[in-house]
Amino acid sequence: MNNEQKLLLVILSSNVQGVAVTIPTTCDINTLLLEASAQSVLSIVYNAVSKLIPEDTKDLWMERSQYALMNNMRVSKLHSEIDKLLGDTPYVILKGNASAYYYKKPLLRAMGDVDFLVNEDDVSIVTSILESNGFTAGEDKGGIHVGFHRDEGMFRDSVELHRSINGIPFGRSGELIKSYLSDIIDTSIRVGSNNSAYNMPDKFHHGFVMLLHTASHLKSEGMGLRHLCDWAVYINTFDDSEWRAMFEDKLKACGLWRYAQIISKCCVKYLGCKDQPWMGEVEDDILEGFIEDILEAGNFGHKDKDRSRQIKYIANRGEGTVDNKSGIRQVIDTINIKANAENKSRIEVVTDYVGMVIRGERKLDSGETIKAAEKRKKLYSNFDLFDVDD
Questions:
Q1: Taking a C-beta distance cutoff of 8 angstroms, is the pair 326, 222 a contact?
Q2: pTM for this model (two decimals)
């Protein structure tokens, strides 16, 4: 961890705690800018240190931060537009404004697009509503969601229409999680008023959505500091008894308890969250490995585009679990699962892959890719993700 990354964590911690921060004279302010941008926390950082930035680089910081803030405002407004377009159609926002709700200054939370969930019976009508209001449908992502976009001058409005929630694994764990989330729309909370209202998950469902979301991205391109900040401001609204009553039995049953403890302890150590008994004990080397992994990735793998190629060496396909088997054994298991799922032989699966490599549709993984994946696998195997007794 370099000095600028350490300072970035101090600044984000000060935001969580609501205290002032200083910038050491030894800090490379432009390196700090690049790191904050890569982690999608620039608005938070600029708000904290704007008066401390040297004159010779202030214009660059202001330009970048103003653009980020303008994007946040635009996407936040888009949440309310979607609410109006849907009218009486039941829906709930996933992440986005729902995560920003827990920040002291919601508009500082970096925004990407608007993700919202509707009931299966309403997917067709909502699709028609979006298309009649200038949105164009994109690719259907595995029956989970469809992306829509609308170009407005130099900007592009992006929304994701969900019929399901990302990150739910197969097996017993997945079935339990589906049951926990089955009433997420019915129990949604209406927040805001007039022209800035939207439906967000209640406290319980929002926590589950965030755990699934971060666990899913963790194993592929990676989890950035933006997601860690989202979790930090959220868990800081709980006391020990409330958390245990709401989550303990369910998280233990579906294999997310240890992960929730580790990510929360990381927020305690690096973002100034209050430590609570439910978080248990987590070894320092795991927390240090976790924060290094987050810093290496950047938001959605912004700092390392190779990370998304590593998942086949890390997680068990479909199950979302991460165990201690070797990377080679992991690939063999992945081939077997893919063959069974597609009713093919293992030779056919391998032949298909080789064909894609020859046609330029896939790239062979380098030794560095495999080595990096094995390092991540060793770390994530401590998280007990979705590890339950069937």
A1: no
A2: 0.90
Angle made by CA atoms 337, 364, 144, in degrees to the nearest 5: 45
**Which tens digits make up the pLDDT trace of 213-223?**
999 988 888 88
By DSSP bridging, strand 136-141 and strand 91-94 are: unpaired
C-alpha span between 368 and 372 (Å, rounded): 6
How long a stretch of residues is the chain?
A: 390
Q: Letter for the amino acid at 369? A: T
Per-residue pLDDT reduced to its tens digit, 68-102? 888 899 999 999 999 999 999 999 999 999 999 99
What are the φ and ψ backbone dihedral angles of 2, each rounded to 5 degrees? -85, 175
Instruction: Compute the C-alpha angle 14/47/52, nearest 5°.
Output: 85
CA distances from 340 to 74, 320, 331, 345, 348 (A): 45, 17, 14, 8, 11
> Token pair of 99, please?
């995560």
Q: What's the confidence (pLDDT) of residue 327?
A: 67
Contact of 228 with 263, CB cutoff 8 Å = yes
In Å, how far from its chain's centre is CA 259? 14
How far is 330 from 317, CA to CA, in rounded Å?
9
Work out the burial of residue 113: count CB atoms within 10 Å of its CB; fewer than 13 is exposed, 13-18 middle, 19 or more buried. Answer: middle
